[in-house]
C-alpha cells in the first residue's frame, strides 16, 4: 500500500493547489502552489519525508518524457513556425544563452563576494 | 479512447533513451528525437494531433504531480538553499527579467509577428505557467507550449556542457542558471548529474514561474 500513500499525498497537494489557484483566480498555476504547500508541509513536519520520497523522486526523475506530448504540438503550427523561423529560432537560442550565462555569472559573482 | 499515442511515445522514448545511454551525445537527446519522430509518424500516417493526444495527454497530465514533487529535492537541499537564500532570490529576479526582455526584444528585432512575440515572452517557465500567462497577454497558448519545450530542450541537451564552457563550477550557480533558463527539462537533466544543483534548479524554476506569472502581464503593458 506504500506507493499509494505517497501518490495520494502528491496528487492531493496538486488538487489543493489547483483549487486554490482557481478559487482565488491567481495567475500562478496549481502545480506550483501545490509544490509550495507540500514544501511547507514537509518543513512543518505535517508530512514526513519518507511518506512521499520514493514516489516524488520517481516522478521528478521521469519528467522528461512528460514534455513529449506538448512538444509534438509543433505539428499544429508548422506553417506559422516556417514563416517565422528566423525570429522564433533566433529569439529561442539567443534568449536562452543570454539568460543562462547572465544568471550563472550573477550567482557566481554574488557567491564570490561573500567568501 | 485509442491507446496508440501513449504507446508510441513510450516505445519511441525508450528506444532513444537506450541509444542515448550508449552514445551520450547532444544530438541523441531522447526528448528531441522522440518529438521529431512522433511528429513525422503523425504527418506521414495522416493522424491528427488530437487523436494522438487522446491517450498521450496522460503523460502530459503527470507534469502537474511532477512539479508538486519538486518539493522533495528542495526539502532535502533546504540547509544549503537557506544559506544561499539571497543569491537564489537575486539570481531568479535577474534571470527571470533577462529571460522575458531578451525573448521579447530579439523576436521583435528579427521581425517576429505580434502573436509570435507575445507567445515567446513566457517561454522560459514551466509549461503550465507559460500557457496561462500566454493566454492572459494575448499569445497563442499551444505555440507557447511548443516554445517552452524547445527552450527546455536547449537546457536538457546543453546546460551542463555550457556551464563547463563558461567555467561556472559553483553548484548553486549551475542549478539556478539551469532552472531559470530551461525550467523542468533543464532540471530533469541536471538532477541526474548533481542532486543539489538539481534541487536548486527545481526551486529556481518554481520561483521564476511565480515571478513571471506575477510580473509579465504588467511588464508587457509597458514594453
Can you describe this structure?
The complex is a heterodimer of chains A (115) and B (223). In chain A, α1 crosses α2 and α1 packs across α3 (49-61). Chain A has 115 residues and is mainly α. Chain A has two domains: 1-66, no CATH class; 68-115. Chain A is built from seven helices and no strands. Chain A has helices spanning 2-23, 30-44, 49-61, 63-66, 68-72, 78-83, 85-114. Helices cover 83% and strands 0% of the residues of chain B. Chain B is built from twelve helices and no strands. The radius of gyration of chain B is 18 Å and the shape is globular. In chain B, α7 (85-109) packs antiparallel against α8 and α9 packs parallel to α12. Chain B folds into two domains: 1-61, no CATH class; 69-222, no CATH class. Chain B has 223 residues and is mainly alpha-helical. The model of chain B has no long low-confidence stretch (mean pLDDT 91). Chain B has helices at 4-23, 30-45, 49-61, 63-69, 71-76, 78-83, 85-109, 114-120, 127-137, 141-165, 171-190, 195-222. The interface between A and B is large, with 73 and 110 residues.
**N-to-C SSE series of chain A?**
HHHHHHH
Strand proportion of chain B? under 5%
**SS class of chain A:** mainly alpha
Mean pLDDT of chain B: 91
Q: Tell me, what's the shape of chain B?
A: globular
Count of β-strands of chain A: 0
Structural class by sheet pairing and helices of chain B = mainly alpha
Overall tally of domains of chain A: 2
Q: For the terminal residues of chain A, how far apart are their CA atoms?
A: 48 Å
Brief synopsis:
The complex is a heterodimer of chains A (115) and B (223). With 115 residues, chain A is mainly alpha-helical.
List the helices and strands and how they pair.
The complex is a heterodimer of chains A (115) and B (223).
Chain A: H1 2-23, H2 30-44, H3 49-61, H4 63-66, H5 68-72, H6 78-83, H7 85-114
Chain B: H1 4-23, H2 30-45, H3 49-61, H4 63-69, H5 71-76, H6 78-83, H7 85-109, H8 114-120, H9 127-137, H10 141-165, H11 171-190, H12 195-222
